[in-house]
Amino acid sequence: MPQVPPCLIARGLFPAHVVSTLVVAAATSQGNWRDVPGRKVRAVGADIDETKLQLARDETEKLGITNVEFRSIDIRERSETQEFDVVYARFLLTHLSDPAAAVDCFLEFLKPDGLVIVEDIDFSGCFVHPPSKAFDRYHEIYCSAVRKRGGDPNIGPRLPLMLNNAGLRNVEVMVVQPMGLEGEVKLLGPLTMEAIVDAAIAEHLTTNEEATEIIAALYEYAADSSTLAGTPRIVQSWGRKS
């Protein structure tokens, strides 16, 4: 479920009244919009994958969450209704061949003075310590797979200027990178490698045998408390509709 970036709560960017939020690719995000202190939030999760949407619906029902609904929406298509106070896109733009056009479409969903929040990766800043050959190969395969399909694995630094060019005002930026010696944050590498295996093989970037070896090595590395691992560098940027 969609996550409210802590930096935005801390900066008081969510208004005190009811906030209607469109969360793009929400079915794969984590967190809970009920956690925004002192605010009532109606969140709409948008994705084009109906399977992911149904999984998200099942999860919210199981957790008793009533302020979130999920719709099949292609954010690249223009909207005729400006119904949202906030549009939040997390780890979406990196996969698009024309992310700037998607940001332009975000504005069509926003009410006047609405807030656009984008959060995405800079994979060039992804690292582990000590060095790992399996990680280096995973890094190479991931970046090549994203580029082969028209995306940009290092889109993060482009986000603030993208929002500026879309005509948003008061654009700000923050960079975060969760890391750890233990815990779930260290599993992002092997889990991501598992998720991209089919695409990587289809693009002739690896073989099933090599991918299996890389995944096993990444899990072993993550289980070792003497190693440091975590997420890629994550750039968060936001601005208001003029």
Q: If you had to describe this structure to a student in words, what would you say it looks like?
A:
With about 240 residues, the protein is an alpha/beta fold. It has a domain of about 170 residues: 3-Layer(aba) Sandwich (Rossmann fold). The protein contains seven helices and nine strands, in the order αββαββαβααββααββ. The strands form two sheets. The protein has a seven-stranded mixed sheet. The protein has a two-stranded antiparallel sheet with strand order 7-8. Helix 4 packs across helix 7. The longest helix has 16 residues. The two termini are about 30 Å apart.
What keywords describe this structure?
24% strand, 7 helices, alpha/beta, two-stranded antiparallel ribbon, 242 residues, seven-stranded mixed β-sheet, Rossmann fold
